[in-house]
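Morning F.,

Quick status update on the modeling queue. The single chain you submitted on Monday has been processed. Sequence for confirmation:
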Amino acid sequence: MAKPISRANSENKFAPLWRLDPDVVYLNHGSFGACPKAVLQKQQALRDEMETQPVEFLDRTFWPRLNAGRETAARFVGADPDGLVFVANATTGVNAILRSLDFSSGDEILLTDHSYGAVKKAALYATARTGALVTWAHVPFPIGSEDDAVEAVLAAATFKTRLAIIDHVTSPTGIVLPVKRIVDRLQERGIDCLIDGAHAPGMLPLNIEELGAAYYTGNGHKWLCAPKEAGFLYVREDKRDLVHPLAISHGLDVKDGDRPRLQMEFDWVGTSDPTAWLCLAEAVRYMGSLLPGGWPELMETNRALALAARRLLADRLGVALPCPDSMIGTLAALPLPDGDNAPDAGWPGDDPLHIALYDRHRIEVPIMRWPAPPKRLVRISAQLYNSLAQYEALAEALTTELKKEDR
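Structure tokens below.
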């Protein structure tokens, strides 16, 4: 095992605010996020309080705290709080919508070929149960402009399309799709959109009401840096009577004049640890306090680093940038030479190049087998704890390992 690349981790003043291993060059914030120490301390204090008097915490003080957190989250993403509920993550939100809608034989659910793997499987499961079909929009990558993405989605939509599930930011390729334009054009055809915003909150400025989609789901644990299981689902007002959580519980038929039916169902689906939801507001506050310009400066700082890092890597790998800067947030993917020894199935971490980068160089970065083996991408993330020296270390390590593959 190679020695840690300490020089790549030594000059970032923000890195000590996280618990990340200083002996690892961590360039994979996009997969699971990373929660700062201060927010984790807040969560632990809440857990201690909950276990000191569970009934007091879950029966008496929980609801005002949850509603206050909902108000903060709704303001941050530009949503009506009456239509926003907390879920564990965006995958849960997608599944709640797919299981709530009554699809019929002949209906179509439209996805792009950049869709997250779990979402693809959820859509295939929903259609297998109902006789509906999953159809695919082939969005090019490399891609020349936002127009190419809009045209690809519109070309795949038909009069049978009941729902389109569109990524705000694609997971394997890291491109920001023009979701407002797509939503508007599909709604002209009477097609509802579910926006998978797993990566968008905290990466991009959001105004869900202006976006106009029927459904929007996002994660707090990624770019908002909240604890794991701090996701949300937004449902437009005209769709709220249709939607139910995956677990049906007490809220199904309980009336409360002060709380919308949607919240009554989703806010309590059985005993669980709700502290991640209660910490989402603290994560928004804390991360927004780290730079003088607050969240706008934080998002722009991370984006500038992602753009600089992908230019550096593209130059060192000798590849063209696969999309314009305007379609990049704080993720970026670049093509790699084909990997003939990559397995056909499994997690991205199973790729031999991923394993070599970690075991020999202590660099954590995903190698995406996309669209399918032997094709591969390297996907980088940029968060405040990262620095350009870390991507220089990645470029050096990639060059070394790719030369070994050529032998």
